[in-house]
Amino acid sequence: MGLFKSVGLGVVAGVAGTGVMTAYQLGVAKLRGQPLGTEVPHKWADAPAPAQVAKKAAGAVGQGDRFTREDVPLLTNVMHWLYGVGWGTFYGVAAGGRGADPVGGGIAFGAGVWGASYAELVPLGIYEPPWKYPAKELALDLSYHLVYGLAVAGAYAALDR
């Protein structure tokens, strides 16, 4: 398969995977009685990780004061989708029509994305190292990413027929 098609299928699979992951996260949040990500935090440190990444990225190019806490819900949503579509695109290029097993490949991919999030967010000061979190919270976070990985791989396999 050509690179252009792999990228295109990866983008679409990334959208599908991000949608499934988001629905799962919202469902879990509702069951746990947690906020749904539409709230304005009292301080930036309480903002979801995607919004904090956006603020740090803006700061790296001299635009750190551009966003306020009121922008957190929008920043969270935009960064969450960009990240999910970006990883889906990566999956598309890596899978590249090789006929990868969507279950095994999806689990490995989701676990890899989860691990990469800690590799990225800990040095940025957004996450603590994984050993500082309760196992139950790590397992829940991993489950979000496994659902994402399975959805991306499944969507990619369905599109690549």
Quick structural summary:
The protein is mainly α and 161 residues long.
Key structural traits:
globular; 0% strand; single chain; mainly alpha; 161 residues; 5 helices
Describe it for me?
- Helix content is 69%, strand content 0%.
- With 161 residues, it is mainly α.
- The mean pLDDT is 93.
- The chain has one domain (3-159).
- The longest helix has 30 residues, at 3-32.
- The chain starts with a helix and ends with a helix.
- It is globular and about 50 Å long.
- It has five helices and no strands.
- The chain has helices at residues 3-32, 49-60, 72-95, 102-121, 135-159.
Please estimate the helix content: 55-70%
Structural class: mainly alpha
* Total strands: 0
Largest sheet: none
| Tally of separate helices | 5
Strand content: under 5%
Mean pLDDT: 93
Give helix and strand order, one letter per element, not per position. Answer: HHHHH
Summed up, the domain count is: 1
Poorly predicted runs: none
Q: What would you call the shape? A: globular
Query: For the CA atoms, what is the radius of gyration?
Result: 16 Å
Distance between the termini: 12 Å
Topology:
Layout: H1 3-32, H2 49-60, H3 72-95, H4 102-121, H5 135-159
Helix pairs in contact: 1-3, 1-5, 2-3, 3-5, 4-5
